[in-house]
Amino acid sequence: MNFKNKVFLITGSSSGIGRGLAKALLEAGAKVVVNYAHNEEKANETKNLFKNYADSTLFIKTDVSDEKSVIDMYEKIEKAFGKLDGLVNNAGYDKVFSIEDLSAKEYRKELDINLVARWLCIKYAIPLLKKSDMPRIVNIASRLGSKPMQDSVAYCTSEAATIMLTKCCALELTSKYNIKVNTVSPSMTLTPFAKKNYSAEEIEQTAMENPSKRLGEIEDTVNAVLFLLSEKADYINGENLNVNGGILLV
Questions:
Q1: Could you give the CA distance from residue 19 to residue 39 in angstroms, rounded to a whole number?
Q2: pTM of the predicted model, to two decimals?
């Protein structure tokens, strides 16, 4: 797919799925805004990996759950590129708590990062997306937005709400500005985060529970997002594309 001279913002893109997507878009000729929240080490590592695309990459450190920071981020994007062709809300946060142990503070933190931040990034992207001839928004949610799991009430509800956020934005923004909005919901994916936080035994067990007998690779989600950002997906709007090997079937 050709994304030559298109401009995309990917939140949380200094590692994992976000970094993989940024790399694929740069290789396809796009200009990419790499957003990260705090991890300077990962950001510098990504800068080094993308050194051959330095002229096409803009790194912006932003807390996407903070409204003023989001406004400042878009001002920098407008100054650098003058428009935006696509927003991928990839940044997310999850911490395991039972319902009884989950504090109101922690619940609000997950909602702020996984839901409010996505809405803020959509709201303030609109003026720049209106300048594009093929504007797109993709929200990265999770299979847990469709299927509950114990000790994940905050994450599950925020991801379910993200799927509805997509539908509301698709209904309103497409009719007004032809901005197509969709969700991609991966299952457990072999990112560096997953490899660090789960044992080899846990990863193997989870893979065997999947009808496809494997876990997701970063490229699985990247390919789905690339399709939704492209002209080939022009008639797809308000949908939730599950990329999970069939785990929701069991």
A1: 13
A2: 0.95
pLDDT digit string, tens, across residues 156-176: 999 999 999 999 999 999 999
Q: Amino acid identity, residue 9?
A: L
Longest CA–CA separation in the chain, Å? 50
**Structural contact between residues 64 and 37, judged by C-beta atoms closer than 8 angstroms:** yes
Which ranges constitute the DSSP H helices of 140-248? 153-177, 192-197, 200-209, 218-229
Residues serving a catalytic function are 155
Q: In 81-108, which positions are buried (b, 16+ CB within 10 angstroms) versus exposed (e)?
A: bebbbbbbbbbbbbeebeeeebeeeebe
Query: In the chain, what are the domains?
Result: 7-188+218-249 (3.40.50.720)
Query: Hey, CA dihedral for 204, 208, 209, 212, is it positive or negative?
Result: positive
pLDDT at 194 (0 to 100): 82
Q: Report the 10 Å Cβ neighbour count for 231.
A: 11
